[in-house]
Amino acid sequence: MLFIPVPFVITVVICILLLQKLYTSQGGKKWLSADHGFTALLVLYAVSSVLIGLRWGYDMLSVLPLQSLLASLWGPLAWLSFRRLSQANSQLIAADWQHSIPVFLILCLIAFYPAWIDITLIGIFSFYAVLLFRLMLAGPNSLKAVRFSEAISSYRALQVTAVMMVFFVLVDSAVSIDFRFYEGNSAGLIVALANLPALLLLSFAASLAGNNVGQSDEGIELPCSEAKDVTDDVNLAAIFTQVEFQMQTQLLYQDEQLNLNMLARKCGVPARQISRAINKQTQKNVSQYVNGYRIRAACELLKSTEQSITQVMLAVGYVTKSNFNREFLRLTGANPGQWRQSQQVTKA
Question: Top-level CATH class of 6-211?
């Protein structure tokens, strides 16, 4: 009986994450943007958790069709949300209609061939796991719409989501085998120990990724197409010079909303070429390059002013102290407080 309240406790946690995300969301985001996709994911996970509780806690078999239908949405919605983080334009495109096929397929199976639902869901999870892993292999720089200060966090959220899709394949396979050979005796335990924690992890991942979306300035058009690749060293060097101008003269790194899309538009160069130019000239990815500027500026403020560490963090473009401390430690070998103390000892 201890199992019964667990799904509802998890639902409460997911709802808290959802409310927190809605409270901290910035205005001006377009409907169906990546940010709203992650909000929809949180709602989907919360409702799914309630249905799991009703099914396995109270043996309400009537919720099974809806539970299967919602499960068919997990993969497509997660993929569309993370994919939009990698695009210059975060809006839906005409070809996205094809990601509604899993939902219509499950609807047809509910009506005519219910026995095929489980194996079909396994196929859906497998397909979207592959898509998410492909996006993951492109690295943190592929998430162009994410603020540079949060790029690693959003990338970790993508990794978690991809792994969880594989995990659902294994869990659904285990439940199917249990029903086929053991009359479902262990199915409730499998769901309690596997699906529920996985839903909680996915919810944290969706909340984290959705909160890291930078503000968009999509009204500015690039003067050249993404299709035009620049590969020669001279042109890449010229692009890097434009980036350096934005960093050193315009102090663009101080903008907490800065992401690859915004940097590309400020320079008037496609995002892919910005990334190549920075990598060619510095052997760093874009987020490492920008964070380098921010940490150097933070060091100067810590050394020459009496500002608090939080004030310094905000002044150089960071939103969260955890990301600021992590990057500061990575680049200087000490946390901000220790570094400031060491500078004061050196002066003395």
Answer: mainly alpha
